[in-house]
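Justification of computing resources. Each target in the renewal requires a structure prediction run like the one illustrated here; the chain below, 101 residues long, is used simply to show the kind of job we budget for.
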Amino acid sequence: MKSSVFRLRAAVALIVMIIAAFLFVYPTQSLLAQQRAFNAKRREVAAVLAENQRLAAETRRLTLPSEIERVARQRFNMVRKNEQAFSVVEKNTKKVAAPKP
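Resulting structure tokens:
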């Protein structure tokens, strides 16, 4: 009779431990996974905010008349009235044989 009581208590203890594992371990793992995902999104948001600040500063800079002129001269080779644009062409140092007639 003692062995059947012992077996019953062992079975009940095993069932209680399994239930405790499902009630405490799984939610804890889920919570930790959520915290990792949250921290990753927080870093992503911080990076996007920093990029937005950089782009806002660049937008402000690109509205300045001096910056508009610099970009127009550099990218589009534009000049003001009464100015002349010059282009420096490097001399080709390779000798090319003239085709034979």
